[in-house]
From TrEMBL:
InterPro entries the UniProt entry points to: Tetraspanin/Peripherin, Tetraspanin_animals, Tetraspanin_EC2_sf
Signal peptide boundaries: none
Entry keyword Membrane: yes
Residue ranges crossing the lipid bilayer per the database entry: 12-35, 55-76, 88-112
Membrane topology: Multi-pass membrane protein
GO cellular component labels: membrane
Listed name of the protein: Tetraspanin
Gene that specifies this protein: Tspan32
Length: 177
């Protein structure tokens, strides 16, 4: 019986370590996503209709909250395992339940709005591109050039007219066509 208890405690501690590593990886991924060049570039473009910005911030705060909940649950569970405390075990299970319940709406949002992030990023790009095409504002041209450099892309096909002039002015050398 004593050997079985030690084995169970070791398994629980290893599981807690894995959950803690999962929480740290979610926090790292959220931070890299929030402060990464590709994502901040689109988020920082100052358009009144930039629908990407709220999604960008919500994803960051949700990721940080989830990672903190998982880390807290792992710490409480490992302490409860070592001390054999029922109260700490209950608090650890409550944190796991809270993390699980917060993931359910996120999964539902992901499947019901599967293209919203991509569409909002493309909307920002289209608005900047069309503004540069219509008006040669140096501010928007610099933003478009930064997008082209960050995403390694160059222009688009437009049914509204010739885009070659915009591409020659905003694309990095060697990427036109």
């Amino acid at each position: 019986l004593r050997c079985g208890m030690r084995t169970t405690k070791c398994q629980l501690l290893v599981t807690c370590l894995c959950v803690m590593l999962l929480g740290l990886s979610i926090a790292t991924l959220s931070t890299v996503t929030h402060y990464g060049l590709h994502f901040t570039l689109i988020s920082d473009i100052s358009l009144e209709s930039n629908s990407y910005r709220p999604i960008h911030h919500a994803a960051f705060y949700f990721g940080i909250g989830l990672s903190m909940t998982l880390i807290l649950a792992a710490l409480l569970s490992s302490t409860a395992t070592v001390r054999e405390s029922r109260c700490l075990t209950a608090m650890g299970f409550f944190c796991f339940a809270l993390a699980f319940c917060s993931l359910l709406p996120a999964v539902c949002w992901r499947y019901t709005h599967s293209t919203q992030v991509e569409d909002s990023m493309m909307d920002v790009y289209d608005l900047v591109y069309e503004e540069v095409r219509r008006n040669t504002s140096s501010f928007r041209r610099h933003e478009l050039m930064a997008i082209h450099e960050a995403f390694l892309c160059c222009g688009k096909r437009s049914p509204f007219g010739d885009t070659a002039n915009v591409e020659h002015k905003t694309c990095p050398p060697g990427q036109v066509h």
